[in-house]
Amino acid sequence: MTSKQHTAEHGSQLEQVNGFTNPGIPEHKPRVTDSSPAAERMAERQIAGWFILSMIGTLWFIVSYFLFPIEDGSMGSIRLQNAMLGLGATLALFSIGVGIVLWAKTLITDVEVVESRHDIAGSEEDQAIALEIINQAKEESGIARRPLLRNTLIAAVAIAPLPALLVFRDLGPLPGDSLFKTLWGPGVRLVQDPGMVPHEDRYIRAEDVTIGSAFHVIPEKMYESEHPLNEKAKAAVLLMRIDPQELNTDPAKEDWGVDGIVAYSKICTHVGCPVALYEHQTHHLLCPCHQSTFDVTNHCAVIFGPAKRPLPQLPIAVDDEGYLVAQRDFVDPVGPTFWEINTRETSEQ
């Protein structure tokens, strides 16, 4: 059955439905490229030009990555490289899209047909029909008899993923055990987060932490490290004081706090957002990103939300001068559970 016969039969069936008359498919109006070989060749060259422009955009992305390097501490170089990379990526993707749209509008057969839907089956007859449809699509699109368009499209699509391979280079080396280590260690003092310039008067005495209070804490001398913001992303801590009678302390962690003062990682174990909302009445910590809620009275166990494990606790103590210090680094890895989680034994700290 031809498409026209099928359309006529389908139309006659529709005329009998609920008394409505089927208006039928609108009359096909030929395009300029359907009747003019010269216009057809011109359209083909234009489409190929867009595909070539896409390749130029991809190559510009690659060249820009090396031509405009990021200089340490220079926001201007970051903006310039991002602008050049964005220009290349936009040109590459936009040009492929425009070329495909023009191909569909000017050269691919645009005769409208109506086809009934059939149940999907796996018989040999259906496979033959599917193969016939593929061959028909190949013929109507002209991809088999238009090597210029076919080859330029294949080339543009083939090199389009190359920029992504370059971007992977910026991800740096594999993290190794760096995700399991922070700047916290034996005797490291807890310091209120002061911004980019730490001061000695930001050290925290146990007597300064009152019941109901919460401090945003970082390790001392953190901003003297080579990559302070990276270190802060792992070492940020929330310090709180709760009536010791309200704490359900694990006997194995009984000496991890100081008279109701406890410290927990500020990095949510869901996707790493900062857990910064402390509710004094319920002793709950809330992550504002996806509402994961942690119970401070039960070692920050998850009581709501998508997080799968508690916030790691930082064992703390008081030094000879009365300041709060870390006993060791976190026993559990901080941050989102994206990698293999292996709890470290206390003896390894």
UniProtKB/TrEMBL annotation:
**Signal peptide as annotated in the record:** none
UniProt-listed InterPro entries: QcrA_N (IPR045603), Rieske_2Fe-2S (IPR017941), Rieske_2Fe-2S_sf (IPR036922), Rieske_Fe-S_prot (IPR014349)
Q: Where is this region: Disordered?
A: 1-38
Q: How does it sit in the membrane?
A: Multi-pass membrane protein
Enumerate the subcellular locations listed in this protein's record, separating them with semicolons: Cell membrane
Keyword Oxidoreductase applies: yes
Q: Transmembrane ranges? A: 47-68, 80-104, 148-168
Residue stretches making up the Rieske domain: 234-325
UniProt KW keywords: 2Fe-2S, Cell membrane, Disulfide bond, Electron transport, Iron, Iron-sulfur, Membrane, Metal-binding, Oxidoreductase, Respiratory chain, Transmembrane, Transmembrane helix, Transport
The record's Pfam families line, in alphabetical order, gives: QcrA_N, Rieske
Q: Which domain of life is it from?
A: Bacteria
> Does the record bear DNA-binding in its keywords?
no
Which PANTHER family does the record match to this protein? CYTOCHROME B-C1 COMPLEX SUBUNIT RIESKE, MITOCHONDRIAL (PTHR10134)
Q: Which family does it belong to?
A: Belongs to the Rieske iron-sulfur protein family.
Task performed by this protein:
Iron-sulfur subunit of the cytochrome bc1 complex, an essential component of the respiratory electron transport chain required for ATP synthesis. The bc1 complex catalyzes the oxidation of menaquinol and the reduction of cytochrome c in the respiratory chain. The bc1 complex operates through a Q-cycle mechanism that couples electron transfer to generation of the proton gradient that drives ATP synthesis.
**What's the protein name?**
Cytochrome bc1 complex Rieske iron-sulfur subunit
Q: Which organism is it from?
A: Brevibacterium pityocampae
> What is the phylogenetic placement of the source species in the record?
Bacteria, Bacillati, Actinomycetota, Actinomycetes, Micrococcales
